[in-house]
Every structure is written in C-alpha cells, then in structure tokens.
Amino acid sequence: VVTEWETAEMIKYAANTFLAMKVAFINEMADLCETVGADVDEVSHGIGLDPRIGRQFLKAGPGFGGSCFPKDTKALLKIAEKQEMDLPITEAVVSSNENRRYKMVDKIVKAFGGSVREKKIAILGLTFKPGTNDMRESVSLAILPELIKLGAHIHAYDPEGMDEAKPLLPGSVHYAASAKDCLKDADGAVVITE
Questions:
Q1: What DSSP line would sit under 102-134, residue for residue?
Q2: How far apart are the first and last CA of the chain?
C-alpha cells in the first residue's frame, strides 16, 4: 500500500488496536467462561474457525504488553483527543488490559486460598512474549510488585529476559538458573509468558 503518511500512521495504529482488542476480548471471555464452567481454549478455537475472526490473538492470558499494542492504542486515543473525539471501544480495550493485570493478582491470591504471605511463588516467564528479552510493558512488571506487597517470595525464571528484568523488578526477586530450579520447593507456579 502506498499512501500519505497520515493514512499510513492510522493503518499501523488501527491494526494494532484491533489485535489488542482481540486479546482483551478473549481475556474477558476467559473470565466469563470460568464463571459458567466453559473452556476458554475451546471457545477460542471455535470462534477462531470463523474466517471473519481468525485464530490469531485469541489466547487468554494476563494481558498484552510489548512495544506496540500499549503504545499504539494510547496513541490512537491521543489522536482522537486532539480531534475532540471519543473512541469508546479503544478506551475499553486500554482499560480492560490495565485492569487485567490486577485481576491476575487476585486470581493468584485466590488460587493460594486467599493469601500469598510467606508463599514461595515460582514465576515462569518475565518478558511480554516468548522468545524475546523485551520487557517493555510486560505484565510481570505489574504483577510481581503486587505479589511482593502481599508478602509473597518471588522466584523467577525466563530463558531470555532475566538480565533485562533485574533492573526493572524489585530487588527481592530471586532469579533461578532454570525452570526446574525455580519450581523447586515452590508453593505454586504462575506462567506469565507462554
């Protein structure tokens, strides 16, 4: 596509916001599936078979991060704000994703019977996506400090991103040499990155 820069910018922001919307949507469906006894993976598979929807970006998890989705959704909102316009769907995507991180903390605490105080929690994955050392907007940057505030002892392992994570996470995080070492004697494990 050859186009003017304004249109090119909107193509990038609109594409990433649409994909972010799919992530936020499947995460909301995951919460609803938990309450009604449905399997979100099967729901994701089923709706992904519809070619109008597609299979990509329908993996439920702790929310999106990285260099593009958070930045581009907020950039689209800023553009609209300058034009004195509201983008309620995009606002909902941003809000849903930000709230998702704290919902995940609540889910973790609930899984530990209501308290993580003095619990050793193995965290598997720190980066915003697998196979990268990129910590930009990673959900681990929100989840781990909250668990530490609640008294958890965090032991983490990420095959790619530990060096990048160390200066960004609280100093009390213990970094393991392997996933096996991280899980040793843990009261439970949380997979943050696939």
A1: HHHHHHHHHHTTT--TT-EEEEE--SSSTT---
A2: 33
For the entire predicted model, the pTM comes to 0.90
Is-catalytic flag, 68? yes
Give strand pairing partners of 124: 157, 191
R_g of the chain, CA atoms, integer Å: 18
Indicate the SS3 state at residue 156: strand
Sequence letter at residue 164: E
What is residue 11's predicted lDDT score, i.e. its pLDDT? 97
Tokens, residue 85: 């316009």
Q: Are 188 and 112 in contact (CB under 8 A)?
A: yes
Taking each helix axis from N to C end, the angle separating 69-82 and 88-111, rounded to the nearest 10 degrees, works out to 140
Residue whose C-alpha is closest to residue 190's, from 20, 8, 179: 179
Checking if the pLDDT of 194 tops 90, the result is no
The amino acid occupying position 112 is F
Active-site residue (options: 24, 26, 30, 68): 68
In the numeric block, which tokens belong to residue 83?
Answer: 């034009």
SS3 of 177, please?
coil
